[in-house]
Amino acid sequence: MGTIRQGANGSFSGKTGSVIGASWKGIDYIRGLSRKRTKAASEEQLIVQARFYAMTKFLMPITPILRLGFGQVKSDRMTPTNVALRQNIDKAVIGTYPNFELDYSKIEISSGSFIGGGATGISASLGLLSINWDVTLNTLYQSKADDQVIILLYQPTANEFMTAPTPPMRADGAIDITIPDHLLGGKGHVWIFFADRKGTKVSGSTYLGEVDLL
């Protein structure tokens, strides 16, 4: 049974007859009860579903990073994760149905206008992933020495992500991250972005490329 809120003219929550009332992100809405599909999905629908699944499978494990990376994108109707999905599906899902793949170089894990780290370098040797960035501060963008540096590594063979145990700061200029033994021997894809310490300013992510994890 539905519950009426704010009097007879207000919204309601729960099931009433053939409709359901609910609220999401402060928006009240009514939807009909789901109906069982009686008609097979068209090829176009299957293609859309497959593209969505390919990107969702990749992004869901890094939801906490996406909350920061896309947290400043203004959207009253979408979560940061859904914004990330929307921006990446069209750009980074390649190939033909049903054999879709991801173009890692086009995947974005953050979106914003905060200043990044300038020139960056990356290498892997003796079980360490080494990354460096520019520490120069920018008065116009109000960058700070204690800005967070978010680094993400993805190893496709193991289908596993890793980050620095504690995000380094802009002033550090470099970091060596220990690569777990089970990720060594394959190739890794690496991204980086910058955020102020409160997470209220975020840069766009930079794809640093593919690296042999030695």
Defining key terms:
four-stranded antiparallel sheet; single chain; DUF6266 family protein; 214 residues; DUF6266; globular; alpha+beta
Task: Write structural notes for this entry.
There is one protein chain. The protein has 214 residues and is an alpha+beta fold. The chain has 3 helices and 13 strands, in the order ββββαααβββββββββ. The protein has helices at residues 43-59, 63-69, 80-92, and strands at 3-4, 12-16, 19-24, 27-32, 93-96, 99-102, 121-125, 128-132, 148-155, 160-163, 174-178, 187-195, 206-212. Strand 3 (19-24) and strand 4 form a beta hairpin. Helix 1 packs across helix 3 (80-92). It is globular and about 55 Å long. The mean pLDDT is 89.
The secondary-structure class comes to: alpha+beta
CATH class of the largest domain: Mainly Beta
> Describe the biggest sheet?
4 strands, antiparallel
Strand order of the largest sheet: 1-2-3-4
Q: Which stretches of 5+ consecutive residues score pLDDT under 50?
A: none
Average pLDDT, rounded to a whole number, is: 89
Strand runs, count: 13
